[in-house]
Each structure stands twice: as C-alpha cells, then as structure tokens.
Amino acid sequence: MKTTGFVKKIDELGRVVIPKDIRRTLDVDHNDYLQFYLEGDSIIMKKFGDRCTFCNSSENVVVFKNKLICRNCLEELKNNTSIDPYPDNESN
Ligand SMILES: [Zn+2]
Questions:
Q1: CB of 70 within 8 A of CB of 57?
Q2: Domain residue spans in the chain?
Q3: DSSP secondary structure of 32-73
Q4: Class of domain 1-48
Q5: Between 34 and which of 44, 45, 72, 91 could a Cys-Cys bridge form, CB atoms 3.0 to 4.6 Å apart?
Q6: Whole-prediction pTM value?
C-alpha cells in the first residue's frame, strides 16, 4: 500500500476531506460515489462510478442494492411485472 503523506481528522459527523491531489489522481469529484471496503484495520475507498448499471446514463442516478440505477430504469423495473426471474428454465 502506497502512503500519500496526508493525515486528515474526522469531524464530529464522521466526515473526512479527501485531499485534492488524491481526488484529482483518481478522477473523483463531488457527487461521485465511493464504495468502502475493510481490509484488516484499513479502510479502502474505491470509485463506484457514476453511471446507471443498465443504460449507462449519468442522469438522476441513485444507489439501489449496491448498484447504480437511474430513475428511468428504476421506474421501468417497478412497472415491469413480466420479468422472468429464471430465464434459463425452459418450461415445456
Ligand atoms: Zn438506467
């Protein structure tokens, strides 16, 4: 693991500022999503992306069950009751 030399204090709400150099290097900015991993006593943050898992849109994207989905696809899913949850099972 490469050290960056940055030390930041967590504020009273549990927030910490990610140093600008790191944000620039990893191309993360405000409103981007980060996913957290634990490895031993370390916290690892990875860029989660910013696009819908299904249509690749970056508009109105929210997190649903650890996946990014846009509001349009979410509505489409909610309104589509004909989805076959077992598409490989042929019923003869
Ligand atoms: Zn979508």
A1: yes
A2: 1-48, 51-92
A3: -EEEEEEETTEEEEEEEESS-TTT---SSEEEETTEEEEHHH
A4: mainly beta
A5: 45
A6: 0.57
Residue 64 Cα to ligand 1 middle (Å): 12
**Amino acid in the structure at residue 38:** L
Per-residue pLDDT of the chain (92 residues; tens, 9 = 90+): 788 888 999 999 999 999 999 999 888 888 888 889 999 999 998 888 788 999 999 899 888 888 889 999 999 998 887 777 677 766 55
Distance 20 CA to ligand 1 centre (A): 30
Residue with tokens 């929210």: 62
Quote the ligand 1 centre to 19 CA distance (angstroms).
Answer: 31
